[in-house]
Amino acid sequence: MLDEIMLQMDRVERDIRNLREQQATHPCDEAFFHYCQHQIDKIEAQMDILNRQLEGVSK
After folding, report:
1. What is the DSSP-derived secondary structure letter of residue 10?
2. Contacts from 32-41 at CB under 8 Å and sequence distance 24+?
3. pLDDT digits (tens, 9 = 90+) for 3-58
4. Whole-angstrom distance between the N-terminal and C-terminal Cα of the chain?
5. Contact (CB, 8 A) for 53 and 5
């Protein structure tokens, strides 16, 4: 289970990095910037859940 959580966390971190890169390459498109930020916020919420799961497994 620990390996599965770590793999999910890696995927989530990669998704966040990709969205941040897309934001940086389209700074003039305000709607796209806000869309990316909304997606990042949702993904960070997933990361919080995974972190709590990881803490539960490691105890």
Report:
1. H
2. 40/16
3. 888 899 999 999 999 999 999 998 788 999 999 999 999 999 999 999 998 888 76
4. 13
5. yes
